[in-house]
Amino acid sequence: MNKLKLSVLLGVFIALEILLAFSFYTKVDESYISESMALSPSEQQIIQNCKDKDVFDTTECLINEVKKFYKFKVTNDEIKLSFEQLKERGGDCRDWALFYEKIGEELSMSSYSFHIDNQAEYGHRFAVLMDSKGYCIIDQIYASCFNF
Predict the structure, then answer these.
(1) CB crowding 106-131: b at 16 or more within 10 Å, else e
(2) What confidence score (pLDDT) does residue 24 get?
(3) pLDDT band, very low/low/confident/very high, at 59 (cuts 50, 70, 90)
(4) What is the dihedral of CA 138, 97, 52, 35, to 10 degrees?
(5) Domains of the chain (ranges plus CATH)?
(6) Which of 81, 109, 135, 144 is a Cys-bridge partner for 85, taking CB atoms 3.0 to 4.6 Å apart?
(7) Residues whose CB falls within 8 Å of the CB of residue 114, separated by 6 or more in sequence, listed in order
Protein backbone atom coordinates (compact mmCIF):
# COMPACT_ATOMS: atom_id res chain seq x y z
CA MET A 1 0.00 0.00 0.00
CA ASN A 2 1.51 3.34 -0.94
CA LYS A 3 2.23 5.98 1.70
CA LEU A 4 -0.58 8.32 0.59
CA LYS A 5 -3.25 5.62 0.89
CA LEU A 6 -1.86 4.54 4.24
CA SER A 7 -1.87 8.15 5.47
CA VAL A 8 -5.47 8.64 4.37
CA LEU A 9 -6.54 5.40 6.03
CA LEU A 10 -4.73 6.32 9.23
CA GLY A 11 -6.40 9.74 9.13
CA VAL A 12 -9.83 8.13 8.85
CA PHE A 13 -9.16 5.86 11.81
CA ILE A 14 -7.87 8.75 13.92
CA ALA A 15 -10.95 10.81 13.04
CA LEU A 16 -13.16 7.88 14.01
CA GLU A 17 -11.35 7.52 17.33
CA ILE A 18 -11.97 11.20 18.05
CA LEU A 19 -15.62 10.92 17.07
CA LEU A 20 -16.11 7.89 19.29
CA ALA A 21 -14.26 9.47 22.19
CA PHE A 22 -16.59 12.46 22.18
CA SER A 23 -19.71 10.41 21.35
CA PHE A 24 -20.46 12.36 18.20
CA TYR A 25 -21.95 10.23 15.50
CA THR A 26 -24.31 10.37 12.56
CA LYS A 27 -27.34 8.36 13.44
CA VAL A 28 -29.56 7.60 10.49
CA ASP A 29 -33.09 8.92 10.47
CA GLU A 30 -35.00 6.20 12.33
CA SER A 31 -37.87 6.45 9.82
CA TYR A 32 -35.51 4.99 7.22
CA ILE A 33 -35.10 1.88 9.32
CA SER A 34 -38.72 1.57 10.43
CA GLU A 35 -40.33 2.29 7.04
CA SER A 36 -38.40 0.05 4.71
CA MET A 37 -36.53 -2.22 7.02
CA ALA A 38 -38.93 -4.58 8.76
CA LEU A 39 -36.97 -7.77 9.32
CA SER A 40 -37.28 -10.24 6.47
CA PRO A 41 -36.91 -13.99 7.04
CA SER A 42 -33.41 -13.78 5.51
CA GLU A 43 -32.40 -11.08 7.98
CA GLN A 44 -33.87 -13.06 10.85
CA GLN A 45 -31.73 -16.02 9.78
CA ILE A 46 -28.59 -13.86 9.75
CA ILE A 47 -29.45 -12.58 13.22
CA GLN A 48 -30.02 -16.14 14.42
CA ASN A 49 -26.64 -17.22 13.00
CA CYS A 50 -24.74 -14.27 14.50
CA LYS A 51 -26.39 -13.79 17.90
CA ASP A 52 -24.84 -14.32 21.33
CA LYS A 53 -21.30 -13.40 20.23
CA ASP A 54 -18.97 -10.57 21.15
CA VAL A 55 -18.47 -7.71 18.68
CA PHE A 56 -15.44 -9.36 17.08
CA ASP A 57 -17.14 -12.69 16.37
CA THR A 58 -20.40 -10.94 15.43
CA THR A 59 -18.60 -8.82 12.85
CA GLU A 60 -16.84 -11.83 11.38
CA CYS A 61 -20.15 -13.72 11.24
CA LEU A 62 -22.01 -10.82 9.59
CA ILE A 63 -19.36 -10.35 6.94
CA ASN A 64 -19.29 -14.07 6.18
CA GLU A 65 -23.08 -14.03 5.80
CA VAL A 66 -23.03 -10.96 3.54
CA LYS A 67 -20.21 -12.28 1.34
CA LYS A 68 -22.61 -15.00 0.14
CA PHE A 69 -24.66 -12.43 -1.80
CA TYR A 70 -22.72 -9.13 -1.70
CA LYS A 71 -22.98 -6.89 -4.75
CA PHE A 72 -21.90 -3.26 -5.07
CA LYS A 73 -24.18 -0.97 -7.06
CA VAL A 74 -24.38 2.81 -6.74
CA THR A 75 -27.87 3.69 -5.53
CA ASN A 76 -29.69 7.01 -5.34
CA ASP A 77 -29.90 7.93 -1.64
CA GLU A 78 -33.61 8.67 -2.07
CA ILE A 79 -34.23 4.97 -2.74
CA LYS A 80 -34.82 2.93 0.41
CA LEU A 81 -33.95 -0.66 -0.40
CA SER A 82 -35.54 -3.58 1.39
CA PHE A 83 -33.14 -6.30 2.45
CA GLU A 84 -34.36 -8.54 -0.36
CA GLN A 85 -33.67 -5.75 -2.87
CA LEU A 86 -30.22 -5.23 -1.36
CA LYS A 87 -29.50 -8.96 -1.71
CA GLU A 88 -30.85 -9.16 -5.25
CA ARG A 89 -29.57 -5.98 -6.89
CA GLY A 90 -26.84 -4.90 -4.51
CA GLY A 91 -26.29 -1.53 -2.93
CA ASP A 92 -23.64 1.07 -2.31
CA CYS A 93 -21.66 1.90 0.80
CA ARG A 94 -24.66 3.73 2.33
CA ASP A 95 -26.99 0.79 1.85
CA TRP A 96 -24.54 -1.69 3.36
CA ALA A 97 -23.67 0.61 6.29
CA LEU A 98 -27.37 1.06 7.11
CA PHE A 99 -27.85 -2.70 6.91
CA TYR A 100 -25.02 -3.34 9.39
CA GLU A 101 -26.30 -0.58 11.67
CA LYS A 102 -29.78 -2.10 11.71
CA ILE A 103 -28.59 -5.67 12.25
CA GLY A 104 -26.18 -4.49 14.97
CA GLU A 105 -29.10 -2.91 16.82
CA GLU A 106 -31.09 -6.13 16.47
CA LEU A 107 -28.12 -7.98 17.98
CA SER A 108 -28.11 -5.55 20.95
CA MET A 109 -24.85 -3.92 19.91
CA SER A 110 -24.22 -0.20 19.92
CA SER A 111 -24.28 0.54 16.22
CA TYR A 112 -23.67 3.68 14.22
CA SER A 113 -23.00 4.74 10.69
CA PHE A 114 -20.64 7.52 9.71
CA HIS A 115 -20.64 9.61 6.58
CA ILE A 116 -17.41 11.06 5.23
CA ASP A 117 -17.58 13.91 2.74
CA ASN A 118 -14.60 13.34 0.49
CA GLN A 119 -15.03 16.56 -1.52
CA ALA A 120 -15.80 14.51 -4.63
CA GLU A 121 -19.06 13.67 -6.32
CA TYR A 122 -19.78 11.01 -3.73
CA GLY A 123 -19.05 10.74 -0.04
CA HIS A 124 -18.61 7.48 1.81
CA ARG A 125 -20.44 5.73 4.64
CA PHE A 126 -19.39 2.87 6.90
CA ALA A 127 -20.75 1.25 10.04
CA VAL A 128 -19.34 0.77 13.52
CA LEU A 129 -20.50 -1.91 15.96
CA MET A 130 -19.48 -1.79 19.63
CA ASP A 131 -19.82 -3.77 22.81
CA SER A 132 -18.03 -3.66 26.16
CA LYS A 133 -14.91 -5.35 24.72
CA GLY A 134 -14.25 -3.15 21.71
CA TYR A 135 -15.51 -1.98 18.35
CA CYS A 136 -15.38 -2.92 14.69
CA ILE A 137 -15.42 -0.63 11.69
CA ILE A 138 -17.32 -2.37 8.90
CA ASP A 139 -16.95 -1.11 5.35
CA GLN A 140 -19.06 -3.27 3.05
CA ILE A 141 -17.34 -6.70 3.29
CA TYR A 142 -14.20 -5.56 5.14
CA ALA A 143 -13.69 -4.85 8.81
CA SER A 144 -11.08 -3.67 11.28
CA CYS A 145 -11.64 -4.38 14.95
CA PHE A 146 -10.08 -2.85 18.06
CA ASN A 147 -10.09 -3.69 21.76
CA PHE A 148 -10.92 -1.04 24.32
Answers:
(1) bbebebbbbeeeeeeeeebbbbbbbb
(2) 40
(3) very high
(4) 180
(5) 26-147 (3.10.620.30)
(6) 81
(7) 16, 19, 25, 26, 97, 125, 126, 127, 128
CA distance 56 to 58: 5
Three-class SS state of 15? helix
Q: Which amino acid is at 107?
A: L
Residue 144 reports pLDDT greater than 60: yes
Average pLDDT over residues 18-29: 44
Residues 99-122 have pLDDT tens digits of: 999 999 999 999 999 999 877 677
Q: Which of 3-12, 33-42, 88-97 has the highest mean pLDDT?
A: 88-97
In the chain, the amino acid numbered 29 is D
**Partners of 128 in the beta sheet?**
112, 137
The radius of gyration computed from the CA coordinates of the chain, to the nearest angstrom, equals: 15
Q: Over the range 39-66, which residues count as b (16 or more CB within 10 Å of their CB) and which as e?
A: eeeebeebeeebeebebbebbebbbebb
